[in-house]
Amino acid sequence: MKNLNPSEFWTGTYHGRHHGTQVTVTATRDDTRPEPYAWTCTCGASRTFPTQDSVDRAAWRHTHPTLRDQLRQRITRLLSTR
Questions:
Q1: How far apart are CA 73 and CA 42, in angstroms?
Q2: Which of the residues 28, 39, 65, 72 has an alpha carbon 20 to 30 A from that of 56?
């Protein structure tokens, strides 16, 4: 789990795979931010949200991408290498 700032509280951890790599997403709450809920992935991605429900759904989908998400990611990688 990542090191939390003094104002952050851990709210969940999600384990999964994407881009063929094992990843861990840590969800936190920090009431000092405009959007208090956030997740940070070991791949470097992160997002913030206004509600707990939004962060849980997005973190789960980031660690467990749908077939559509996987295809979109592959196409993006192929196009970015050109």
A1: 17
A2: 72
Task: Say what the pLDDT of residue 49 is.
Answer: 93
Per residue in 14-40, pLDDT (tens digit) is 999 877 789 999 999 999 999 999 999
Question: What is the amino acid identity at position 56?
Answer: D
Contact, 35 vs 21, CB < 8 A?
no
More confident residue, 68 or 4: 68
Record the tokens describing residue 51, joined without a space. 């509600």
E-assigned strand segments in 1-82: 8-18, 21-30, 37-41, 46-49
CB half-sphere exposure, 47, CA atoms < 13 A = 14
2 has pLDDT over 70:
no
Q: How far is it, in rounded angstroms, from Cα 53 to Cα 69?
A: 20
